[in-house]
Specification:
4-stranded antiparallel sheet, disordered N terminus, about 240 residues, mainly beta, 6-stranded antiparallel sheet, Immunoglobulin-like
C-alpha cells in the first residue's frame, strides 16, 4: 500500500500479538506504520551547444572566443560602460575573468587566424532557455572586440542551428592610437591590458583602422589590418 500524496510508504504489520493482562487472551491486530521516503532527485539533464566562430577579416587575428551561458541580464551592450572583465578581452584577449560571469561557460583555444574557424562546446544543466553571450578581441587593434550579447536560446531545438554575423565594437577603454606601444597583436606586440582608461568610456561601434598607409604616421598598422563589417560569423548548434 502506498501513500502517494506525500511520498509515504505504509508498512502493514500483520498478526502482531498483544498479551492483555486483564483477560490473558492474545489480541492480534493490524498496525499500519507510516514511513517517510525522500522524494527522488532526478539526475540533471545536460543541454549542450557547439558554437563555431569564423574569422572573416583579412589581417585581424581573433582572440580565443569567450562563450558564456547565463540566465538573466547582459554582460555587455552598446552604450554601456565596459566591465573590467570585458576590458581585459578587448585590450589583450584575456577571457579568464569574463568566463566566470555566467552559469556555464567555455573558452576557445588559441587565436583564430583570418579565414579560419574554431568550435567551442558548452554545456549547462536543465536550462533550455539560457542566454548566450560571446566576446573576442580583434588582436591588431587597441580595444576592438566582437561577439553577440544575450541571445536567447529558448527556441533552439536539438539538432537545430542559428547562424549570424557580428561587427566590430569599440570597448571605449583605450584610445585608438594604433601605436606600436599599445597594440598587443602580432602587428606590434605592444602593451596589453592597462587599468587606466583614456577613451570615450562606453561601448560603441568601432570606427575602423586608419593605418600608416592612410596617413597616420604613428600607426603600427597597415592597410592589411583594415576590416569591413561583419568581422566574424557565428553558428550555434544545439547538440543535446
Amino acid at each position: 500500500m502506498q501513500y502517494l500524496a506525500k511520498h509515504y510508504k505504509k508498512a502493514l504489520v500483520l498478526t502482531l500479538p498483544f498479551l492483555l493482562a486483564a483477560c490473558g487472551d492474545d489480541d492480534t491486530r493490524e498496525v499500519i506504520v507510516e514511513v517517510e521516503v525522500p522524494a527522488e532527485i532526478p539526475d540533471p539533464v545536460p543541454v549542450s551547444y557547439d558554437v563555431t566562430v569564423t574569422n572573416l577579416t583579412n589581417g585581424q587575428p581573433v582572440s580565443p572566443p569567450a562563450v558564456v551561458l547565463h540566465s538573466e541580464g547582459t554582460l555587455w551592450e552598446v552604450g554601456a560602460v565596459a566591465s573590467v572583465e570585458l576590458e581585459r578581452i578587448a585590450e589583450v584577449g584575456d577571457s579568464a575573468d569574463f568566463l566566470m560571469l555566467g552559469d556555464a561557460s567555455a573558452g576557445g583555444v588559441g587565436p583564430i587566424t583570418p579565414g579560419d574557424s574554431q568550435t567551442i562546446s558548452v554545456t549547462i544543466d536543465d536550462i533550455t532557455d539560457a542566454n548566450l553571450t560571446i566576446a573576442a578581441m580583434l588582436g591588431n587593434t587597441n580595444d576592438a572586440f566582437t561577439g553577440i550579447n544575450s541571445w536567447s536560446l529558448a527556441n533552439l531545438e536539438v539538432g537545430a542551428t542559428y547562424t549570424t554575423v557580428s561587427p566590430a565594437y569599440d570597448a571605449g577603454t583605450e584610445a585608438n592610437t594604433e601605436s606600436a606601444a599599445t597594440v598587443p597583436g602580432p602587428a606590434a606586440n605592444g602593451e596589453g591590458f592597462s587599468p587606466s582608461r583614456d577613451d570615450t568610456g562606453f561601448i560603441s561601434m568601432h570606427p575602423g583602422v586608419v593605418s600608416s598607409d592612410d596617413g597616420l604616421s604613428t600607426s603600427a598598422l597597415t592597410v592589411e589590418h583594415k576590416f569591413d563589417n561583419p568581422v566574424i560569423r557565428i553558428q550555434i548548434t544545439r547538440t543535446e
